[in-house]
Amino acid sequence: MEGLRPRAPLGLVLAAFGAIYFIWGSTYLGIRIAIESLPPFLMAGTRFILAGALLYAWARLRSGSPRPGLKDWRDAAIVGGLLFLGGNGLVVWAEQKVASGPAALIIATEPLWIVLVAMLLPGATRPGARAVLGLIAGFAGVAMLMAPGLGSSAVDPVGAAALVLAALSWAIGSIYSQAAGARARARGNGAVLHAFLWTGMQMLCGGSMQLMAGTARGEWATAHPADMTMRSVLAFLYLVVFGSIVGFTAYSWLLSVCSAASVSTYAYVNPVVAVFLGWLLGGEHVGSMTIIAAAVIIGGVFLILHDQQRAARAARLSTLETAPETG
Fold it and tell me: What pLDDT is stored for residue 62 in this prediction?
């Protein structure tokens, strides 16, 4: 497996990839089941506060990570708001209108948004021909899902628009998170913020914002325990334990032992898993247009990520060629 460090146990690596491939792919159906009887933003906020508190406490008590500073919490609040309120929150809200499979397909366009947002940054380089083709294909696939005349399972346009905004918010949050890490290293505490601690901080901040959003929407008035079904509660617990704690822990660990290009392959697999589980367990209709749109979107994502991998390899080779000789 490309980018794997020699000391990383292969079995553990495969298990971690299985977590981000299949567990994260299943969370779309888990969200749909959870919000059948649980208010969407209150459910999501409680999910991430519980998971974030556990990760934060574990990192502080077991890994010896020191207390983060105010600037670290500021960055965590911004990233958490973009990832969990804007990203996950809009997904949870949109799945009241959009089936879990198409929702996962639209969210799969997140790498496309990263390329577009990165182009606006100072000193950005223009994407290659493959990336441009990937952008066209990815957004064409989303248009195919939304077009009412192309199939009987056209996606609700309001829900689809919310999902597009969710993917954009997640992309901006991901880019900002990288900048926040650079600032932390400049402050001399790059190694201080343990990966689990940093993730827990983002979840705590983003989950708190989701609770505030749910409160603003009046969701507490609809949160009656007597109306909560067992299947929604079990789906919520699955999202907390497996989707948040296991999934994000596996993702953070994989980034430390494998190349980012290898880890990013979850973007191909998640929507396929989501569509399959939505059809198998959720009773969701999967028409021919959904399958075609899925192939177009995943193909576009492949072209984007492949172009990024080539650019990263070229940058590494350039660095090696220009490095001064020693000895």
Answer: 80
